[in-house]
Write a structure and sequence with these properties.
mainly beta, Ubiquitin-like (UB roll), 6-stranded mixed β-barrel
Length: about 475
C-alpha cells in the first residue's frame, strides 16, 4: 500500500498553528512569573544576654535577622550560631556580649572588651604582667598575685607602683626611706649613701626590696695584724679576729689562737696577734669485748651447740693531743676518740632438731624427745613447810596431791604438766614448781612413809608428746 502526503498548503497550515501555540505558552509563562509570590511570615527569637527580642519575616542568614532586629555588635561579642550561618526560625539566636574593663596603667586609661571571666585570664589576654614593684587594684581593692586565678573579672583595674618602707642603718646613722626603688643598690643611691670597696651591705646590693626591708651598711675599720714576725696594716669590714684574718688570707692551724679572743668585737685601731701553736699526737688503744649471739639451727641436734662464727674484739682508739708553745709542752688533751675496729660478735648455733627415742620403763617402753642431766632431790608433802591441818597441805601447783610420781621442776626447763622418766625413780608427772627449784633441778615426790633420799644427779627423759613451745636454750650450769 502506498502512503500519500497531504497537499503542501495543509502542511504549511499545521506548522503555522504549532508556532502560534508555542508563542502563546511562552507569553503565559512570562506573565505568571511577573506575579508576586506571597510567602508565610516566620518568627525568629534573639537573646541579647537576658533580653529576648522577636523578629518576624523571612531571612536567609543570622546576620539578616540581627540587622532586622536593629542589633549592633562589637568584634568581641559572640553570636551563636555564627552570623554567617543560615537562620532557622525554631533555633534561638544567642548573643554573648563582651564586658568592658577599664585599665589604668602608667597614668594612661584604656578600655578593653573581653569574654574572660577571671582576672588572670584577662591579664593574659591583654598581655599585662606585673613587675615586682607594682601592685594591682581591682575595683579599687588590692588583690594579691596568688589570688589572680580565682578573682572574678572586675570593671576597673588600676596598676600602680608599690612603695616600700626601707630602713637604712649605717653605723650610728639611722634613716627611714619611703621609696619605689626595686633593689638595695637603688635605695642606697636614692639615700645618697656611698660605699667603699671594703664596705659591706646586707642584703646584697642586687637584692629586691620587700616591705619593711632593713639595709645594714657595715663600714671597714683600720686594724693591725701581728703574725709570723710581721706587722700588717689593713682595713676590714669584719669585726671578729678570725673573720679579719680570713679576709686577709692568713690561715690558722687547728691549734693556733688569737689575742684578743675570736669572739671579741674589734674597734678601729685594734691589733690582732696570732699565736702559733704546734702539737703532736699520741694514740692509745682500748680493747672492746665482743658479744656472743645465739641463733637456732635445724641442722644441730637438740641441746647441742656449735660455733658458727668466731668473735673478734674491737678496738677503741684515742688520739691524745700534746700542746706546744714555742717548743715547750704546755699540756695535753683528748683530741678525738673513735672506734677503730668494731667488735665481731661470736655466733653460736643451738640445735632445734628433735629426734624421738624409746626407753624401757617399769611401765613398758616409752617414747622420749629430750634427755637432760639434772640435779635430783626428793621431797614429801611435809617439805612444803605447812602444817598437816593447813587447807593447802600437800597440794601441788597443779592441784594434785604431793606423793610418789609427782615431781617439781622449773617450768622454763621442763614443761609444766608434762611427763618425765628418771631412772631408778620411774615416771613422774611435773605437777609442782617448787619455790627453790630453779634451773636444771628436779625434785622427786614421795609419799611421807616411803621417802627415799635423793641428792645427786640424774638423766631426766622428757616423754612424748612434744609440746608446742620448747625452750631450746637450757641453763648450762647444774645447781
Amino acid at each position: 500500500m502506498t502512503s500519500r502526503l497531504p497537499p503542501w498548503p495543509v502542511s504549511i497550515l499545521i506548522i503555522f498553528l504549532l508556532f502560534i501555540g508555542t508563542i502563546t505558552v511562552g507569553i503565559a509563562l512570562y506573565l505568571l512569573a511577573q506575579q508576586p509570590i506571597t510567602l508565610t511570615q516566620q518568627s525568629y527569637t534573639v537573646y541579647d544576654g537576658d533580653i529576648a527580642i522577636t523578629v518576624s519575616g523571612n531571612y536567609q542568614t543570622v546576620a539578616e535577622v540581627l540587622q532586622a532586629a536593629g542589633i549592633s555588635l562589637r568584634p568581641e561579642d559572640i553570636v551563636l550560631p555564627d552570623a554567617r550561618e543560615t537562620a532557622v526560625p525554631e533555633s534561638a539566636i544567642q548573643i554573648q556580649r563582651a564586658q568592658p574593663v577599664t585599665v589604668i596603667l602608667q597614668n594612661e586609661t584604656h578600655t578593653h572588651w573581653t569574654q574572660q571571666t577571671t582576672l588572670s585570664a584577662f591579664l593574659a589576654e591583654v598581655d599585662i604582667t606585673l613587675k615586682p614593684n607594682q601592685q594591682l587594684l581591682a575595683d579599687r581593692q588590692p588583690v594579691m598575685l596568688e589570688s589572680f586565678t580565682l578573682h572574678p573579672l572586675p570593671t576597673e583595674i588600676d596598676i600602680t607602683l608599690r612603695t616600700n618602707t626601707v630602713t637604712i642603718q649605717d653605723g650610728d646613722q639611722h634613716q627611714v626611706l619611703q621609696t619605689t626603688a626595686q633593689t638595695v643598690a637603688q635605695a642606697l643611691q636614692e639615700a645618697q649613701i656611698g660605699l667603699d670597696a671594703a664596705d659591706s651591705v646586707t642584703p646584697p646590693p642586687s637584692a629586691q626590696l620587700k616591705a619593711d626591708t632593713i639595709i645594714q651598711v657595715t663600714r671597714a675599720i683600720p686594724l693591725t695584724i701581728q703574725v709570723d714576725g710581721q706587722t700588717i696594716q689593713t682595713r676590714s669590714r669584719q669585726n671578729r679576729p678570725l673573720e679579719v684574718l680570713a679576709e686577709a688570707g692568713i690561715e690558722l692551724s687547728e691549734a693556733d689562737y688569737t689575742s684578743p679572743a675570736p669572739e671579741t668585737n674589734l674597734l678601729a685601731g685594734d691589733t690582732i696577734q696570732v699565736i702559733r701553736v704546734s702539737d703532736e699526737f699520741r694514740l692509745e688503744d682500748e680493747e672492746m669485748p665482743y658479744q656472743t649471739r645465739y641463733q637456732p639451727s635445724e641442722e644441730l641436734d637438740l641441746d647441742t651447740k656449735a660455733v658458727l662464727s668466731t668473735g673478734t674484739p674491737g678496738i677503741r682508739r684515742k688520739r691524745i693531743r700534746l700542746l706546744f708553745e714555742d717548743g715547750i709542752q704546755v699540756g695535753e688533751e683528748l683530741d678525738e676518740e673513735w672506734i677503730e675496729q668494731e667488735p665481731v660478735n661470736q655466733v653460736i648455733g643451738y640445735g632445734t632438731k628433735i629426734t624421738v627415742g624409746t626407753i624401757d620403763t617399769p611401765e613398758g617402753p616409752r617414747e622420749y624427745w629430750r634427755v637432760v642431766r639434772m640435779r635430783a632431790t626428793a621431797y614429801t608433802a611435809a617439805s612444803s613447810g605447812k602444817s598437816p591441818d593447813h587447807p593447802a597441805y600437800g597440794i601441788t601447783a597443779s592441784g594434785v596431791p604431793a606423793g610418789n610420781g609427782v615431781v617439781a621442776a622449773d617450768p622454763n626447763v621442763i614443761p609444766f604438766r608434762s611427763e618425765v622418766y628418771v631412772p631408778d625413780y620411774g615416771i613422774g608427772f611435773v605437777g609442782d614448781t617448787g619455790g627453790g627449784v630453779k634451773g636444771r633441778w628436779i625434785d622427786l615426790g614421795f609419799d611421807e612413809d616411803d621417802l627415799i633420799t635423793w641428792n645427786g644427779y640424774a638423766d631426766v627423759y622428757y616423754l612424748t608428746p612434744i609440746p608446742e613451745e620448747i625452750n631450746y636454750l637450757l641453763p648450762e650450769i647444774l645447781p
